[in-house]
Design a protein that fits this description.
Elements lengths: L1 H18 L19 E9 L5 E10 L2 E9 L6 E10 L2 E10 L2 E12 L2 E5 L1 E4 L4 E4 L5 E8 L3
Antiparallel strand pairs: 1-2, 1-10, 2-3, 3-4, 4-5, 5-6, 6-7, 7-10, 8-9
Length: 151
């Protein structure tokens, strides 16, 4: 009788543990992004003749929503620092970057692509007619940011 009661209690305990186990499925391309809780990813890129231009991106991903920070520090030029917001579909992220440069607030559309442990950015072009930089849909994802540990 005692063995039967112990078996019964053990089976109830195992059922409770099994029902409460975490069955989260990774999404994306191996970056283990969680669609339930926000995941923060950080990236950095170096460019210019002597790799003195630095750009950094912090992405906060929660399901299909994206927010974060984007900072661009070209060597001996004016920096652009601001917030990004957008949406994610699969490995593609599209949105708007609102930044400050020389005390002026401006914005530009962006497109990123998550690829392995990197983030690729689609090129932008300066439009002389408007005096603004714009996203060029005909360009490739040619700027590469490497993933870093955040913090």
């Amino acid at each position: 009788m005692k063995l039967s009661a112990c078996s019964f209690l053990l089976s109830i305990a195992l059922t409770v543990v099994a029902c409460n186990s975490d069955n989260k499925q990774p999404v994306g391309n191996g970056l283990d992004l969680d669609v339930i809780r926000p995941d923060t990813l950080c990236f950095e890129s170096y460019g210019g003749l002597q790799n003195q231009d630095t750009a950094s991106i912090e992405l906060i991903l929660k399901g299909g929503e994206v927010s974060g920070k984007f900072s661009n520090f070209p060597y001996q030029k004016d920096k652009r620092v601001g917030l990004i917001r957008g949406t994610r579909t699969g490995d593609m992220i599209k949105g708007i970057w609102e930044y400050q440069q020389e005390g002026i607030t401006d914005s530009i559309n962006f497109e990123f692509k998550l690829q392995d442990s990197a983030l690729l950015q689609k090129e932008t072009r300066f439009n002389p007619a408007t005096g603004k930089e714009t996203l060029d849909q005909n360009c490739a994802f040619n700027k590469k940011f490497l993933r870093l540990n955040c913090g």
